[in-house]
Amino acid sequence: MAGSLATKLARFDVWALAATALRLEVNLTPKPGLVDRANNGSHSDMDHALFLRSIDAITPWFRVFEKAGFEYALKPASEQLRLLRPAGMACEQAMFEATDGVNTHKGGIFSLGLICFAAGRLRGLNRLVCAQSVCQQVAEICKGLVARELASRTHAATAGEKQYQQFGLTGARGEAELGFPTIRQHVLPYWYQEAGERRFHHALLRLMAINPDSNLVSRGGIDGLCYVQEYAQTLLKNGWNIARLQEMDKALISRNLSPGGSADLLAVSYVLATLG
Q1: Does pTM top 0.90 for this prediction?
Q2: Are 263 and 269 in contact (CB under 8 A)?
Q3: Which of 24, 44, 198, 202 is deepest in the core (most CB within 10 A)?
Q4: Would you say the C-alpha torsion 100, 201, 197, 62 has a positive or negative sign?
Q5: Burial class (CB in 10 A: 0-12, 13-18, 19+), 126
Q6: Region for residue 87 given its phi and psi (left: phi exceeds 0; alpha: psi -120 to 50; beta: otherwise)
Q7: Helices (H), 142-195
Q8: How far apart are alpha carbons 92 and 88 in whole angstroms?
Q9: Per-residue model confidence as pLDDT tens digits over 59-69
């Protein structure tokens, strides 16, 4: 029994899964409103090559996050986020240096960094590393995050704070604090219904159909969010193919809409689905 547990514990380097997830996400084509191999989506300041440079720059930090989780495993869960934050900020700086100040992966660094850190902590505690345990760890580490960083602010300064005050949206913080419920409820149960690239397209559509994506709200308000959600829901209901995804891509680009939050969650979905 101890041997099989040890095998499970050492089965994946989660930091490597995180890097693979980002490459799979950016290479997925077509990807409505998002940067892919065909076009820049609704972005004038970034392209596929820039995303690859960004991934190269931040990948070593995923390993740092996982190692830190292992080293700090015995510290209380309430202290973990404070311990992780300096490495997270350094990773963001590495991204900005590689992209000349363009925010390509800030959301991905947050979510995937937490997952790598949580996996390291689980190993440090000699506990099973799987999707459920990683999500539970992330939720424990992020307990109270929304209250501290969004609900307590009387004067909204950031886009996230403004969206929380105006619409009650909690963004990536809320998703992490609840252990990625959108993925667990709306993506993972359907992960094996499709195969190959179609699996990732299907997962992305499911995310766009339900995710209260703060990127969409920033660009198009609640109307923009509802437009993308309804469009994705219609494709899922009536059937979709590459041509229809390309049509959706044109429609989102024409409205300057980019579901970047769903793209981040797609990368997280790959990691969690692989961990099983």
Answers
A1: yes
A2: no
A3: 202
A4: positive
A5: exposed
A6: alpha
A7: 145-146, 159-167, 171-177, 181-186
A8: 6
A9: 999 999 999 99
